Amino acid sequence: MEDVWIEKYRPATLEEVVGQTEITKRLLSYVSTGSMPHLLFAGPAGTGKTTCAIALAKGFFGDGWKQNFLELNASDERGIDVVRSRIKDFARTAPIGMSFKVIFLDEADALTQAAQAALRRTMEKYSQSCRFILSCNYSSRIIDPIQSRCAVFRFRPLTDDEVKEYMLRISKAEKIDIEDEAIQAILYVAQGDMRRSVNTLQVGAVLDGKVTADSIYQVTASARPEEISKILDESLKGSFTTARGILDKLLIDNGLSGVDILRQMHREIFKLNIPDDIKIEMLFHLGEVDYRLIEGGTERIQLEGLLARFASLGRKLKG
Predict the structure, then answer these.
(1) Are the beta carbons of 216 and 249 closer than 8 angstroms?
(2) In the chain, where are the structural domains located?
(3) What CATH number belongs to 160-219?
(4) CA distance from start to end of the chain
(5) In a designed cystine with 150, which of 38, 89, 171, 200 is the match (CB 3.0 to 4.6 A)?
(6) Which CATH architecture has domain 225-318?
């Protein structure tokens, strides 16, 4: 599904960006001076990196921002050819009505090493007429010569209160009937990712007249946190059959993948009221099974084996 609401409710100015106050203050200072260095936006998905880049371009160029702004997704065009052709061609042309233009490279950490080396030279050669904004999830994958040429902005995941306020605002504008539990479910699933929150709300509103927690967990292929907690509790108690029954329900009836279940287990382990040394062993086994699943292991066998290990750890608690 296209991100219809993402574009509809995307903040138009830097002042409207949610949750990145310190970053937007620094970016607004660039707009007020009419100049900026090359920028590197790093942080988790859905935290406002693309929105800030577009809002920054609008702040500099006004209504004609698209003429001086080029957006490329580096994960689609990641080789050296795109740097030598599209990026270089845009960078060498004169800006319209401004002293510089902006190239925004989304997912820049997907660029190959050769492409990044070519990009470094392009950034240096055309710095008078063009500024680069690089967006990435992992700044460590950007070569040091590029990082040293950029002012680095690190985006943080949004807080639950920030996401909740935005969800309520959209719900009011779209006249959506949404339960409080559904909002909590969105917050649990999204984990500070605003884009995922908005898309989840949109899908939930399309599928059902009233957005409920059940519909949210269904459309996101997620288990309720209490179901995962019960699997962990029952396995630690030694009730392997009960834990296995809940696991089968999630795998067969709900259609969840083994990796998704492991990720939710990882979150719930930290909430368990057990000694830290038991949590450490649980996390060790969890990581081992996660690796085996990625390498092609059978989901049910690996997950049931994990529950068996948890049951063995439970004996330490009793002993």
Answers:
(1) no
(2) 4-154, 160-219, 225-318
(3) 1.10.8.60
(4) 52
(5) 38
(6) Up-down Bundle (1.20)
Question: Within the chain, where are the H helices?
Answer: 4-8, 21-33, 49-61, 80-82, 88-92, 113-125, 144-147, 160-174, 180-190, 194-207, 213-219, 225-237, 240-248, 258-269, 276-294, 299-318
Fold observed for domain 4-154: Rossmann fold (3.40.50)
| Of the candidates 125, 130, 132, 122, the residue with the CA atom closest to the CA atom of residue 100 | 130
Separation of alpha carbons 91 and 69, rounded Å: 10
Backbone torsion region of residue 12, taken as left when φ is above 0, otherwise alpha when ψ lies between -120 and 50, otherwise beta = alpha
Residue 117 Cα distances to 80, 143, 150, 152, 291, angstroms: 9, 8, 15, 19, 32
* CA Rg value for the chain: 24
Per-residue pLDDT tens for 207-220? Answer: 767 899 988 998 88
Contact 237, 209 (CB under 8 A): no
Share of the chain above pLDDT 90, in %: 66
**Residue 1: what pLDDT?**
45
Please report which confidence band the pLDDT of residue 80 belongs to, taking 50, 70 and 90 as the band edges. Answer: low
